[in-house]
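Quick one - inputs below.
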Amino acid sequence: MKSTKKIEENINETFKVLETIEEVKVNHFFKHKVLQQLENQKEEKLPVFGWFTPKLQLATLGMVLLLNVSSIYYVFSSQEKNTEVTLETFAKSYSLQTETTYILN
Amino acid sequence: MFTFFNNNLGEQDFITKLIEGNQTAFSQLLDDYQQKVFSTCISFIPNKEDAEDVAQEVFLTVFKSIKKFKGDSKLSTWIYKIATNKCLEFIRKKNTKKRFAFMQSIMGNEIPFDKTNYFTEFNHPGIILENKEKSATIFKAINTLPEMQRVIFTLAKIDGKSYEEIAEITGKSLSSVESVMFRAKKALQEKLGKFYKNNSS
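Output:
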């Protein structure tokens, strides 16, 4: 019973501590520091690629993607013709064409 | 001290100046709010240096995102909202770092870090020495509350804001703030009760 009372007292005292917290004054140089940081950020913000706005970035990305897709399409569509061409050239270079078989008869 | 906030029109003019990047307006904003924002920060973060760093970050964010401020609330409410979020973010990051360091020490990579949470580094200059132990106890207990209870209790009892202001900052109704506050107090009483019971035995 006594200990319960003591615990309650302790709890109340702990809550009371919050009322005794004094205001802590901000550092005198706080404003100066913030303005300095702002100034530094502004200097950093003068970028070389400032003109490269998000709209332009998106357009460039679109162009690159289009180029990639068209080159892939070109490669695959010309591959079939190429195989025919290469077969012909292969047959020619190894004399495997039907014309050459007359010589043997 | 002269402020720009005598009426709504004044505040609107002031915000326009801030958006235009007016240096005098920035300076005025700092004069008006540096102490208030710092007080809010030190209420959440009981360490002067850390609270000051976070307060600086708050102003940098305010200046950076003032263009996004739509004026649905008062400028002060918006600034306190940023301050509260920055403080919670800071505490979250600190606690994660500590947990990570603790895990590393378990795995065998010894790092000279405190093994418990951020609130073991208690350094609040507004608390007199004889109250330091009790303050550390209650700050630790507050930090274990659910986030909304923690925010509302801290703003009300440590930062000294009114329930109306808290309702605006948190975007909750007045009755909701009161009920969360009631639950926070009850939870804290239970936590402190358990703590003192364990310590007395």
